[in-house]
Amino acid sequence: TFKQVFDLAPWNTLNIGFLAVATRQAGDDESQGWASAVVRSNRTLGAAMYHAVAGHLDPMIEALEGAYERKDWDLLSISHFWFLDPYRAHPRFQALLKRMNLA
Q: Would the pTM count as exceeding 0.85?
């Protein structure tokens, strides 16, 4: 389903992120191709999603900060993303939430 959504709206990096997360969680080798697409669009919420699931703290925070700078409205939903749970107590994550008035 995410693949179909991506095919319809390839400009939406959130969809790319969901697809990368889903394929990585499923252990699908195809996730490497999607991961490449997400990383190319770095500094987006989609890239942050992938990096969070992959356990890459610094690139995840950098991607979230980039999404914030771009005023990505999807950031309003980050409190619902389970894959960010391990990072919620991190000081950089908390600082970003404060800047967005979500803390």
A: no
